[in-house]
Amino acid sequence: MIEIEDLTMDYGDFRALDSLSLSIPQGEFFAFLGPNGAGKTTAIKLLTGLLEPVGGRVRLGGFDIQEEPLKAKALMAYVPDVAVFYEKLTALEFMRFIADIFEMDEARSEALGEELFAKFHLASCAHQRIENLSLGTRQRLAIATALLHEPKVFIIDEPMVGLDPVHARIVKKELKQRSREGMTVLMSTHLLNVAEELADRIGILHHGKIIALGTMDELRAQNAVQGQRLEEMFLGMVGEG
Ligand SMILES: Nc1ncnc2c1ncn2[C@@H]1O[C@H](COP(=O)(O)OP(=O)(O)OP(=O)(O)O)[C@@H](O)[C@H]1O
Protein backbone atom coordinates (compact mmCIF):
# COMPACT_ATOMS: atom_id res chain seq x y z
CA MET A 1 0.00 0.00 0.00
CA ILE A 2 2.98 2.27 0.74
CA GLU A 3 5.90 1.75 -1.63
CA ILE A 4 9.07 3.75 -1.01
CA GLU A 5 11.96 3.39 -3.42
CA ASP A 6 15.41 4.92 -2.96
CA LEU A 7 13.88 8.00 -1.36
CA THR A 8 16.53 10.67 -0.86
CA MET A 9 16.35 14.20 0.52
CA ASP A 10 19.02 16.87 0.88
CA TYR A 11 18.84 20.19 2.71
CA GLY A 12 21.65 22.10 1.01
CA ASP A 13 24.73 19.90 1.38
CA PHE A 14 23.19 17.85 4.15
CA ARG A 15 21.67 14.47 3.28
CA ALA A 16 18.72 14.04 5.66
CA LEU A 17 17.35 10.87 4.04
CA ASP A 18 19.58 8.46 2.19
CA SER A 19 18.04 6.01 -0.33
CA LEU A 20 15.20 4.83 1.88
CA SER A 21 13.40 1.81 0.44
CA LEU A 22 10.47 0.27 2.23
CA SER A 23 7.28 -1.56 1.37
CA ILE A 24 4.37 -1.47 3.81
CA PRO A 25 1.52 -3.82 2.86
CA GLN A 26 -2.16 -3.08 3.28
CA GLY A 27 -3.32 -3.34 6.89
CA GLU A 28 0.14 -3.25 8.41
CA PHE A 29 0.76 -1.08 11.45
CA PHE A 30 4.28 0.23 10.92
CA ALA A 31 6.28 2.31 13.40
CA PHE A 32 9.13 4.59 12.46
CA LEU A 33 11.57 5.16 15.30
CA GLY A 34 14.80 7.07 15.48
CA PRO A 35 16.70 9.59 17.55
CA ASN A 36 16.16 13.34 17.13
CA GLY A 37 17.28 14.41 13.69
CA ALA A 38 17.20 10.86 12.27
CA GLY A 39 15.01 11.89 9.34
CA LYS A 40 11.56 10.66 10.41
CA THR A 41 9.70 13.94 9.80
CA THR A 42 11.55 14.41 6.53
CA ALA A 43 10.44 10.93 5.43
CA ILE A 44 6.84 11.66 6.43
CA LYS A 45 6.82 14.99 4.57
CA LEU A 46 8.07 13.20 1.46
CA LEU A 47 5.42 10.49 1.84
CA THR A 48 2.65 13.05 2.13
CA GLY A 49 3.90 15.17 -0.76
CA LEU A 50 4.78 18.17 1.44
CA LEU A 51 8.39 17.92 0.25
CA GLU A 52 9.76 16.92 -3.12
CA PRO A 53 12.62 14.41 -2.93
CA VAL A 54 15.95 14.89 -4.70
CA GLY A 55 15.71 11.23 -5.68
CA GLY A 56 13.46 8.19 -5.48
CA ARG A 57 9.72 7.88 -5.33
CA VAL A 58 6.70 7.15 -3.14
CA ARG A 59 3.54 5.35 -4.21
CA LEU A 60 0.40 5.24 -2.10
CA GLY A 61 -2.13 2.66 -3.24
CA GLY A 62 -0.26 2.57 -6.56
CA PHE A 63 -0.35 6.34 -7.13
CA ASP A 64 2.91 8.27 -7.25
CA ILE A 65 2.65 11.13 -4.72
CA GLN A 66 4.50 13.51 -7.06
CA GLU A 67 2.92 12.47 -10.37
CA GLU A 68 -0.66 11.84 -9.22
CA PRO A 69 -0.89 13.80 -5.96
CA LEU A 70 -4.67 14.18 -5.89
CA LYS A 71 -5.32 10.47 -6.33
CA ALA A 72 -2.65 9.56 -3.80
CA LYS A 73 -3.90 12.13 -1.26
CA ALA A 74 -7.52 11.03 -1.65
CA LEU A 75 -6.50 7.67 -0.13
CA MET A 76 -4.52 9.15 2.69
CA ALA A 77 -4.81 10.99 5.98
CA TYR A 78 -1.95 12.76 7.71
CA VAL A 79 -1.88 13.94 11.31
CA PRO A 80 1.24 16.01 12.05
CA ASP A 81 2.65 16.25 15.59
CA VAL A 82 1.16 19.73 15.90
CA ALA A 83 -2.17 19.71 14.09
CA VAL A 84 -3.20 22.77 12.14
CA PHE A 85 -6.81 23.94 12.26
CA TYR A 86 -8.97 26.89 11.37
CA GLU A 87 -9.06 28.11 14.97
CA LYS A 88 -12.28 30.15 14.69
CA LEU A 89 -14.33 27.15 13.55
CA THR A 90 -16.09 24.95 16.07
CA ALA A 91 -15.10 21.29 16.26
CA LEU A 92 -18.25 20.30 14.36
CA GLU A 93 -17.75 22.98 11.69
CA PHE A 94 -14.22 21.70 11.18
CA MET A 95 -15.48 18.14 10.80
CA ARG A 96 -17.96 19.36 8.14
CA PHE A 97 -15.22 21.34 6.41
CA ILE A 98 -13.11 18.17 6.13
CA ALA A 99 -16.14 16.26 4.79
CA ASP A 100 -16.53 18.93 2.07
CA ILE A 101 -12.86 18.74 1.10
CA PHE A 102 -13.23 15.02 0.51
CA GLU A 103 -16.57 15.59 -1.24
CA MET A 104 -18.32 13.15 1.07
CA ASP A 105 -22.02 12.45 0.92
CA GLU A 106 -23.60 14.65 3.60
CA ALA A 107 -25.71 12.00 5.33
CA ARG A 108 -22.77 9.62 5.44
CA SER A 109 -20.30 12.18 6.73
CA GLU A 110 -22.74 13.34 9.43
CA ALA A 111 -23.29 9.75 10.58
CA LEU A 112 -19.57 8.92 10.58
CA GLY A 113 -18.73 12.23 12.22
CA GLU A 114 -21.22 11.62 15.01
CA GLU A 115 -19.80 8.15 15.57
CA LEU A 116 -16.23 9.50 15.71
CA PHE A 117 -17.19 12.36 18.04
CA ALA A 118 -18.81 9.85 20.41
CA LYS A 119 -15.86 7.46 20.23
CA PHE A 120 -13.26 10.16 20.89
CA HIS A 121 -15.35 11.95 23.58
CA LEU A 122 -15.71 15.07 21.46
CA ALA A 123 -19.51 15.43 21.49
CA SER A 124 -19.51 17.79 24.48
CA CYS A 125 -17.18 20.23 22.71
CA ALA A 126 -18.74 19.98 19.23
CA HIS A 127 -19.91 23.60 19.41
CA GLN A 128 -16.78 25.07 20.98
CA ARG A 129 -14.29 27.01 18.92
CA ILE A 130 -11.10 25.07 18.29
CA GLU A 131 -8.99 27.92 19.70
CA ASN A 132 -10.51 27.18 23.12
CA LEU A 133 -9.85 23.43 23.14
CA SER A 134 -7.15 21.79 25.29
CA LEU A 135 -4.09 20.19 23.69
CA GLY A 136 -5.39 16.65 24.14
CA THR A 137 -8.84 17.56 22.81
CA ARG A 138 -7.24 19.16 19.73
CA GLN A 139 -5.26 15.97 19.18
CA ARG A 140 -8.40 13.84 19.44
CA LEU A 141 -10.17 16.18 17.01
CA ALA A 142 -7.23 15.95 14.59
CA ILE A 143 -7.34 12.15 14.65
CA ALA A 144 -11.14 11.93 14.47
CA THR A 145 -11.35 14.29 11.48
CA ALA A 146 -8.47 12.49 9.75
CA LEU A 147 -10.41 9.22 10.04
CA LEU A 148 -13.64 10.73 8.69
CA HIS A 149 -13.08 9.92 5.01
CA GLU A 150 -12.05 6.35 5.89
CA PRO A 151 -8.50 6.64 4.58
CA LYS A 152 -6.67 3.58 3.31
CA VAL A 153 -3.34 5.00 4.46
CA PHE A 154 -3.03 6.76 7.81
CA ILE A 155 0.19 8.62 8.57
CA ILE A 156 0.63 10.02 12.05
CA ASP A 157 3.50 11.77 13.78
CA GLU A 158 3.53 11.27 17.58
CA PRO A 159 -0.10 10.14 18.05
CA MET A 160 -0.09 10.41 21.84
CA VAL A 161 0.72 14.16 22.02
CA GLY A 162 -1.21 15.64 24.95
CA LEU A 163 -3.42 12.59 25.50
CA ASP A 164 -4.26 11.44 29.01
CA PRO A 165 -4.17 7.66 29.68
CA VAL A 166 -7.90 7.18 29.01
CA HIS A 167 -7.77 8.93 25.65
CA ALA A 168 -4.42 7.39 24.73
CA ARG A 169 -6.07 3.98 25.17
CA ILE A 170 -9.06 5.00 23.01
CA VAL A 171 -6.78 6.25 20.21
CA LYS A 172 -4.53 3.19 20.34
CA LYS A 173 -7.52 0.85 20.26
CA GLU A 174 -9.16 2.64 17.35
CA LEU A 175 -6.01 2.81 15.21
CA LYS A 176 -5.19 -0.85 15.88
CA GLN A 177 -8.74 -1.92 15.10
CA ARG A 178 -8.76 0.02 11.83
CA SER A 179 -5.42 -1.45 10.84
CA ARG A 180 -6.85 -4.94 11.44
CA GLU A 181 -9.71 -3.95 9.13
CA GLY A 182 -7.28 -2.99 6.36
CA MET A 183 -6.13 0.58 7.02
CA THR A 184 -2.36 0.85 6.60
CA VAL A 185 -0.82 2.86 9.44
CA LEU A 186 2.56 4.54 9.48
CA MET A 187 3.31 6.05 12.86
CA SER A 188 6.39 7.99 13.87
CA THR A 189 7.07 8.08 17.59
CA HIS A 190 9.62 8.36 20.36
CA LEU A 191 7.40 6.28 22.65
CA LEU A 192 8.99 2.88 22.38
CA ASN A 193 6.34 1.20 24.54
CA VAL A 194 3.63 2.45 22.17
CA ALA A 195 5.55 1.15 19.15
CA GLU A 196 6.09 -2.19 20.86
CA GLU A 197 2.42 -2.46 21.79
CA LEU A 198 0.91 -1.47 18.45
CA ALA A 199 3.31 -2.06 15.59
CA ASP A 200 3.40 -5.15 13.41
CA ARG A 201 6.80 -4.02 12.16
CA ILE A 202 9.26 -1.42 13.28
CA GLY A 203 11.84 0.50 11.28
CA ILE A 204 14.64 2.35 13.04
CA LEU A 205 16.07 5.35 11.21
CA HIS A 206 19.48 6.74 12.13
CA HIS A 207 21.34 9.43 10.21
CA GLY A 208 18.83 9.16 7.37
CA LYS A 209 19.17 5.39 6.89
CA ILE A 210 17.18 2.39 8.08
CA ILE A 211 19.45 0.53 10.50
CA ALA A 212 16.92 -2.09 11.61
CA LEU A 213 13.63 -3.36 10.23
CA GLY A 214 11.25 -6.09 11.27
CA THR A 215 8.85 -7.47 13.85
CA MET A 216 9.95 -7.43 17.48
CA ASP A 217 11.08 -11.05 17.11
CA GLU A 218 12.99 -10.25 13.92
CA LEU A 219 14.69 -7.29 15.60
CA ARG A 220 15.68 -9.55 18.51
CA ALA A 221 17.07 -12.10 16.04
CA GLN A 222 19.01 -9.38 14.17
CA ASN A 223 20.51 -8.31 17.52
CA ALA A 224 21.11 -11.89 18.66
CA VAL A 225 19.17 -11.29 21.87
CA GLN A 226 16.17 -13.03 23.39
CA GLY A 227 13.30 -11.45 25.26
CA GLN A 228 14.75 -7.94 25.16
CA ARG A 229 12.44 -4.96 25.26
CA LEU A 230 12.48 -2.49 22.41
CA GLU A 231 14.04 0.21 24.57
CA GLU A 232 17.18 -1.84 25.28
CA MET A 233 17.55 -2.82 21.62
CA PHE A 234 16.95 0.73 20.43
CA LEU A 235 19.56 2.19 22.76
CA GLY A 236 22.02 -0.51 21.73
CA MET A 237 21.43 0.14 18.03
CA VAL A 238 21.75 3.91 18.14
CA GLY A 239 24.94 3.66 20.15
CA GLU A 240 23.71 4.55 23.63
CA GLY A 241 23.34 1.05 25.10
N1 LIG B 1 14.16 22.63 6.41
C1 LIG B 1 15.32 22.14 6.82
N2 LIG B 1 16.49 22.75 6.48
C2 LIG B 1 17.68 22.26 6.87
N3 LIG B 1 17.81 21.13 7.60
C3 LIG B 1 16.70 20.49 7.97
C4 LIG B 1 15.41 20.96 7.60
N4 LIG B 1 14.49 20.11 8.11
C5 LIG B 1 15.18 19.16 8.78
N5 LIG B 1 16.51 19.38 8.69
C6 LIG B 1 17.56 18.54 9.26
O1 LIG B 1 17.41 17.23 8.73
C7 LIG B 1 17.67 16.25 9.74
C8 LIG B 1 16.46 15.36 9.88
O2 LIG B 1 15.43 16.13 10.47
P1 LIG B 1 13.97 15.52 10.77
O3 LIG B 1 13.14 16.62 11.27
O4 LIG B 1 13.51 14.76 9.58
O5 LIG B 1 14.33 14.48 11.94
P2 LIG B 1 13.38 13.68 12.93
O6 LIG B 1 13.85 12.26 12.91
O7 LIG B 1 11.96 13.93 12.61
O8 LIG B 1 13.77 14.36 14.32
P3 LIG B 1 12.91 14.63 15.67
O9 LIG B 1 12.81 13.29 16.36
O10 LIG B 1 13.82 15.56 16.42
O11 LIG B 1 11.61 15.22 15.29
C9 LIG B 1 18.05 17.04 11.00
O12 LIG B 1 19.46 17.10 11.07
C10 LIG B 1 17.44 18.41 10.76
O13 LIG B 1 18.19 19.41 11.43
How would you describe this protein?
The strands form two sheets. A six-stranded mixed sheet has the order 6-7-8-3-9-10, sandwiched between helices. A four-stranded antiparallel sheet has the order 2-1-4-5. The protein is globular and about 50 Å long. It has a domain at about 85-150. About 35% of the residues lie in helices and about 25% in strands. α3 (about 90-100) packs across α4 (about 105-120) and α3 packs parallel to α5 (about 135-145). The two termini are about 35 Å apart. The protein is built from nine helices and ten strands. The longest helix is centred in the C-terminal third of the chain and has 16 residues, at about 165-180. It is an alpha/beta fold and about 240 residues long. Adenosine-5'-triphosphate binds next to β2 and α1.
Keywords summarizing the entry:
ATP hydrolysis activity; globular; 241 residues; transport; single chain; binds adenosine-5'-triphosphate; six-stranded mixed β-sheet; 10 strands; alpha/beta
Provide a concise account of the structure shown.
With 241 residues, the protein is of the alpha/beta class. The chain has nine helices and ten strands.
| Proportion of residues in helical segments | 25-40%
Largest sheet: 6 strands, mixed
Return the string of H and E elements. EEEHEEHEHHHEHEHEEHH
Number of distinct helices? 9
Tell me how many strands there are. Answer: 10
**Radius of gyration from CA coordinates:** 18 Å
Shape from CA axes?
Answer: globular
Straight-line N-to-C gap: 34 Å
Mean pLDDT, all residues: 93
Strand pairing plus helix content: what structural class? alpha/beta
Major sheet: order of its strands?
A: 6-7-8-3-9-10
Which kinds of small molecule does this entry bind, naming each only once?
A: adenosine-5'-triphosphate
What amount of the residues lies in strands? 15-25%
Instruction: Show unreliable segments.
Output: none
Keywords: ATP-binding, Nucleotide-binding, Transport
GO molecular function, one term: ATP hydrolysis activity
Protein name: ABC transporter ATP-binding protein
InterPro entries: AAA+_ATPase, ABC_transporter-like_ATP-bd, ABC_Transporter_VariousFunc, P-loop_NTPase
